[in-house]
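Write out the 3D structure for:
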Amino acid sequence: MDRETQDWVPRGRRQHARLTARAQMPDGTRHTVVVTEMSYEGCKLSSNRPFAKGQTVVLSVPGRGEIVAQIRWIKDGWAGAKFVTGDCAKDARRARLGI
């Protein structure tokens, strides 16, 4: 799994979950995803459609509304997404550039 070590930050505590949600892809299409291991910072996703590292998606999660997230890693049919809150200029730049 590729990671940029200079911006690695330990993730917050994750809670086990199994939620069915919708992901709006950059091209506007929507796909069903399974959301697991949620935290305030991100989640783990599974879908029958492929994700791309750096891709920005809008997740519609029951009870949480719409959340903008960036795919940070992909492995064995799973993807890790970091929620883009707009609180950090680095997050906003990455989402804009798709990296």
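Residues 89-97 form the longest helix (9 residues).
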